[in-house]
Amino acid sequence: MKILIIDNDESLRYMLTEFCKHANWESDTAENGRQGVDKFLQGTYDVILVDYHMPEMDGLQTVREIRKHNENIPILVLTVDERQEVADRFIEEGATDFALKPVKAPDLISRIRLHVQIANMKHVKKEEEDVFTAKGISKGTLQQIAEFLKKNRDPYPVDAISKEIGLAYPTVYRYLMYLLEEGKVKQVVSHQKIGRPKKLYKWYTH
């Protein structure tokens, strides 16, 4: 994991670098917001730590600038200012969280870990949603068909499922093919006395 530390206080930059070493993380430092944004655009980071009061470009401007380029990276603001309106302004600009100075290593490390975890979960969720969108699959419809099959243990033909849940036959068929491909549904062939064998579908229980 790599952390970008943006703070004009040299002793604090050193201390935060030591925190990162302690947690076995890599870190880069910048002396002000402008330098920090430049470094961010040139490198790859997992978390950004930003000081509030800095010359040239303060913490608010820095957060705003970074958010123009990246919506997801966790940005933790470090400040001595305890006022609620300051916190609100940072959240409005897109900061993820903030810690009051002086910061303590265990608190900061656990916050960083938590926010990286949340960011990763969001990323996975977005990837899943992109897959659904690409395949023209709606999560709600998929759930509706899955719930019906889970509740009813017997295998059902497409027309019966379509009738029971009130969705068009082609829609149900398309979703069943998707679930079949995902290994969630099993196809059972029922041999009729008259006519062609009928394909039935049931929820696949391992």
UniProtKB/TrEMBL annotation:
Question: Which keywords appear in this protein's UniProt record, sorted alphabetically?
Answer: Phosphoprotein, Two-component regulatory system
Domain Response regulatory span(s) in chain numbering:
2-116
> In the record, what terms sit under GO molecular function?
phosphorelay response regulator activity
Q: Where are the transmembrane segments?
A: none
On this chain, the residues bearing 4-aspartylphosphate are 51
- Output the SUPFAM superfamilies linked to this UniProt entry: CheY-like (SSF52172), Winged helix' DNA-binding domain (SSF46785)
Which Pfam families does the record associate with it?
Answer: Response_reg
Q: Which InterPro entries would you find in this protein's record? A: 2C-system_Tx_regulators (IPR051271), CheY-like_superfamily (IPR011006), Sig_transdc_resp-reg_receiver (IPR001789), WH-like_DNA-bd_sf (IPR036388), WH_DNA-bd_sf (IPR036390)
Q: What superkingdom heads the lineage?
A: Bacteria
Q: Which PANTHER family match?
A: TRANSCRIPTIONAL REGULATORY PROTEIN DCUR-RELATED, TRANSCRIPTIONAL REGULATORY PROTEIN DPIA
Protein name (record): Response regulator
What is the species of this protein? Halobacillus salinus
